[in-house]
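I am still getting used to backbone structure tokens and would like to learn alongside you. To get us started, please write out a protein record for me. Start from the sequence, derive the backbone structure tokens from it, and show both lines together. Once you have written the record down, we can walk along the chain together:
***
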Amino acid sequence: MEEPEMQLKGKKVTDKFTESVYVLANEPSVALYRLQEHVRRSLPELAQHKADMQRWEEQSQGAIYTVEYACSAVKNLVDSSVYFRSVEGLLKQAISIRDHMNASAQGHSPEEPPPPSSA
């Protein structure tokens, strides 16, 4: 009869021991220690990723600014085509006046071709 009683007492002791080990293993301070270890191992990599992302963001912002500036410049060129046409007309008019003045200075009318030079 003592053996079943001894087994019961042994089972109670092992159950209490198991419960104590479980409580100790899951105690908040142990959990916080494990969390601290995880953070200590992971933090440098996360900090590097953050720095990389910030650098990429700066590069992207610079590229976006460059593209927007280029688009603005192209739009301004398109908008200024009226002025280019006006300048072109004025240049043609100036060339025509110059030719007329050169022809008048040589005694020829602009419609007559100049005499061939004997060179």
The chain has one domain: 2-104. Residues 13 and 55 are 61 Å apart (CA to CA). Residues 2-104 form one domain. The chain has a mean pLDDT of 86.
